[in-house]
Specification:
Helix content is 81%, strand content 0%. It is mainly α.
């Protein structure tokens, strides 16, 4: 019995040994890993580490004074609040856009699909100028909104939210779209044949499959909105305590040669962004484990 089992075991291990020893397109693990770590260190880790190091020159009291003044706190609330609202809006309507692109055929579908990527290709300053001209009190959309409803969009926090929605749409659509393409229509038809209505099909069949992609798209849209500057600075109005975003304060500190103060504010933004993304990643992991448990 022992002699019979030995060849089987050897045969089972042979493919694994061949796969490990077979050459790949890239160099070995050591060289590839070294290049990867060096590349990420130069582009990501070292610049991020420079922020707290530079802000440490202020001392604890100077750091607190720089990041906790009423003007800066108001910019935190506006930046993260507007980013959260914009990401939630994109989560809902971006999913609808992805659904239309995947499940329906209609004239101009390719044009609509290409327009989704327009915020990626369009310079943010151009987007900001276009949105400001469109939503100003004399613009094509701003004038009717102000006249009929009394809504002022440009140079208000509402204008900031609209600009952040514009730049965040592709992140949700392009994250959800491939997942929707993998969900077969037969699953929905099977749920309908078993007596499920549309809401039950969405809640129990589609939503569990889409939830990780939805959360990823939301996280990407939110992170992009938090750091946005070019498309927001034109439509925001930049009024302190009203429509002034945190990235603008950082630019103002740099123009005043207050590099330590700018680094301190940027450090707070970095920590808050990492904390929120960490929470979202925890939720994604919990959802993945929950799906495996059901399977």
């Amino acid at each position: 019995m022992t002699s019979a089992s030995t060849p089987a075991a050897t045969g089972a291990q042979a493919p694994f040994a061949v796969r490990r020893s077979s050459p790949g397109v890239l160099p070995g693990f050591g060289i590839s890993m070294g290049y990867a770590v060096l590349y990420l260190s130069l582009l990501v880790l070292i610049p991020l580490a420079a922020l707290p190091i530079k802000s440490a020159s202020l001392g604890w009291q100077g750091f607190w004074d720089a990041v906790a003044s009423p003007r800066v706190v108001a910019s935190y609330k506006l930046t993260f609040g507007a980013s959260l609202i914009a990401a939630l809006v994109n989560l809902v309507f971006g999913t609808i856009v992805a659904w239309v692109l995947v499940r329906y055929r209609f004239p101009g579908k390719k044009i609509l699909d290409a327009l989704v990527d327009l915020p990626f290709a369009l310079p943010t300053a151009v987007a900001g100028i276009a949105l400001t001209a469109l939503y100003s009190e004399k613009g094509w959309l701003g004038a009717p909104l102000a006249e009929w409803f009394g809504w002022k969009v440009a140079f208000t926090p509402l204008g900031i939210v609209i600009a952040l929605i514009f730049i965040g749409v592709p992140f949700v659509v392009r994250t959800v779209q491939p997942v929707l393409e993998d969900v077969e229509r037969e699953i929905e038809e099977a749920a309908a044949s078993l007596g499920a209505n549309r809401w039950q099909t969405i809640r129990r069949v589609l939503l569990p499959a889409l939830l990780p992609a939805l959360m990823t798209g939301f996280a990407l849209a939110f992170a992009r909105a938090v750091g946005e500057y070019g498309s927001v600075v034109f439509i925001a109005g930049n009024m302190p305590m009203v429509s002034e975003i945190t990235p603008l304060l950082i630019i103002a500190k740099l123009e005043q040669f207050d590099y330590a103060g700018a680094a301190a504010i940027a450090t707070v933004m970095l920590v808050l962004s990492f904390a929120l993304l960490f929470v979202i990643n925890l939720l994604q992991g919990w959802q993945a484990r929950r799906g495996l448990g059901r399977a």
